[in-house]
Amino acid sequence: MFPRLIVSAAALAAVVLFFLPPPAGATASVMHAAAVVIFSVALMATVALPEYLVGLTFFFLTVVLAIAPPSVVFSGFHSGAVWMVFGGLILGVAIEATGLGARIARWLVGVVSGGYFTMLVGIVWIMALLAFVMPSSVGRVTIMMPIVLLLADRVGLVEGRRGRTGLALAVAMGTLTPTFAILPASVPNLALAGAAEAIHDIQFTYTDYLILHFPVIGLVSMIALPPAIWLLFRDRTAPDGGGAGAVRLTGAEIRLMIVLLAALALWATDTLHGVKPAWVALGAAIVCVLPRVGVVPPGAVMQKMSFGPILFLAGVVGMGAVVTHSGLGRVVGDALQGALALDAEGGFGNFAALIGLGAAMGLVTTLPGEPAIMTALAENLARATGWPLLSVLMTQVPSWALLMFPYQAPPLVVAMVIGRIGVGQFLRLLIPMALFGWAVMVPLQYLWWRHLGYLP
């Protein structure tokens, strides 16, 4: 009932926005875009419709109302994230079908043995540390989620148990929040680096970025996530009743291990060879279904795969592109900037206001689209605060750790689908973690930056 009320209210607000006159200097397409976006965001946040219908509804409304050209509306299908998901889903099917996932799950039982809380700690830290060698967060989720679900089965956390949801959330959040602090490990990081170089000719270094963000965003979130999940999704594991694992690897498992190791090597060295992680994942997926060489028949893959996540994710990415193309992002950013009380003596108030601005923008643009708009506003914000431009640019990163809805981050969308995590279950963790971020991580980040000399 509650999701329907939200969607109904959003639909009413969308109709009103559609017919309102645009603000000075803006075109009518800005208001039309705002109408479609607010309705689409409500659908994405509540999943009141099946995921594929949410994506299709966004495409239909945006094209029929001529808010943006089809090349912009459907730009999500050009995005590497979408093809990363496609390739990752096939790899996930292969991991499960060959039995390799069950074998790795048996190994994980030994590594993270000691109970449910120990498993949460182990999974969060494994997912975060994987980011140093595997740059794609979507890829980490798509490979590890099936394995962790098999691990849940082995310890009695079957479908419907709170602990199963907790382990799935550990995969999702462990691969996302801490990795905002590792430059190549998340799409928003790379979008910010690219926008800063293109607009302001500022280049980030791996080490400086890590020192600035990892001690708070990385380590604090890695420490805070396991107890938060344990408190919200308390459960108990049963003794591992899976029996002894097979001693010898099968031929299919060996071939799949070779494919996965090759993919991991290519993901870890993408800066050397220049092949994007998405195309590595797609290539690995193709090898997995090739006749003779592959490990699963194409027909079996098509039966087990759902294309709903592809349409939903393409809609999320396309929405960010439409927000930018229509000028809505700039209008919203200017309005929010005008509402901020920034001054050269603001100190922590300025810091919190800039992070709040980024967090608010992320609700409209999603995290991959936020850096383009916030980076364009950064010079004005730097003048208003009297801070260095680099410091203002970097305030975007803490705002990402305050996300409140899964639709804001493509890896969470993928985790929601593969891990069968409901939106309500996600919100049960995301909202308390956002409040924790405001109460603990933002002040710590401010003190850390002052200590490093990034803030006056």
Number of strands: 0
Radius of gyration: 22 Å
The amount of helix comes to: over 70%
For the sheet with most strands, the description reads: none
Total helical segments: 22
- Content of β-strand: under 5%
Task: Walk me through what this model shows.
Helices cover 73% and strands 0% of the residues. The protein is mainly α and 456 residues long. It starts with a helix and ends with a helix.
Please outline the helices and strands:
Elements lengths: L1 H18 L8 H19 L4 H14 L5 H4 L6 H19 L1 H12 L4 H15 L6 H18 L7 H13 L12 H14 L5 H27 L18 H18 L1 H4 L3 H13 L8 H7 L3 H19 L1 H12 L8 H38 L3 H6 L1 H5 L9 H9 L4 H30 L4
Helix pairs in contact: 1-2, 2-3, 2-16, 3-16, 5-8, 5-14, 5-16, 6-8, 7-9, 7-11, 8-9, 8-21, 9-11, 9-21, 10-18, 11-22, 12-14, 16-18, 16-21, 17-18
Summarize this, please?
The chain has a domain at 80-188 and 204-308. 73% of the residues lie in helices and 0% in strands.
